[in-house]
Every structure is written in C-alpha cells, then in structure tokens.
Design a protein that fits this description.
The protein is mostly beta strands. About 0% of the residues lie in helices and about 50% in strands. It contains no helices and eleven strands.
C-alpha cells in the first residue's frame, strides 16, 4: 500500500520560512518523479515544484523560483520543499505527489499517488 505523508506545514508570518517533508512508503521513491502541488481556497490545484528521479533536474512555478527549493533523499524515501520569503499568496494546502513515469511534468493528472496535504498559512 502506497502512502505519501506530508509534514511541516503551519502558520508563519510573511517573509518567514517553512520546510515541508513528504515521506513515502510502499514504493521505492527513486523510481518516481516527485512533485509538490498546492491548492488555495476557491482555486484549482497548481504545480509548485518537481524533481527528477535522480534529483538532477528540477522545475518550478515561476512565482516561487528563487524562493522555494525542492530536494530529495532517496535513501530515506523522502522529498522536501524548502520555502523561504513566504508571501500571503503562498497560503494553501500543499500536496506531495509521485509519478511513475520518467519525465518530470507539471501536469497533475500524470501523477499516480498523492498525499493528504499539509496546510501552509502565511499571515501579512
């Protein structure tokens, strides 16, 4: 049974930082492209960041480039999202996802497994 469990969300002031973690079980994460998505109230889910199976390639939503960093530790079956200089517009539920294909993609429907999400709230 595949499980992705996110942690690290919370309430932070604008300009602050959070580090999200996604622990995977029931799969070998090195065989999966991993991604982070987010969904704000009343909005569609959007791609935030993705990382290739080896970790050598990454891709980001334009609005988070230079502020967020995705990384992975395949030995720990864990992927991270370091979020700095947070803005109120970053407030959302953040989801971790795993894609069994070899191509890094921002398309949510390409991802096979999803976590339950963790809330990130940025106050102004």
């Amino acid at each position: 049974q595949v499980q992705l469990v996110e942690s690290g969300g919370g309430l932070v002031q604008a300009g602050g930082s959070l580090r999200l973690s996604c622990a995977a079980s029931g799969l070998t994460s090195s065989n999966y492209v991993m991604g982070w998505f987010r969904q704000a109230p009343g909005k569609e889910r959007e791609f935030v960041a993705g990382i290739s199976r080896s970790g050598s390639s990454t891709h980001y939503l334009d609005s988070v480039k230079g502020r967020f960093t995705i990384s992975r530790d395949n030995a720990k079956n864990t992927v991270y999202l370091q979020m700095n200089s947070l803005e109120p517009e970053d407030t959302a539920v953040y989801y971790c996802a795993a894609d069994g294909s070899s191509l890094l993609t921002a398309i949510a429907t390409r991802y096979d497994y999803w976590g339950q999400g963790t809330q990130v709230t940025v106050s102004s």
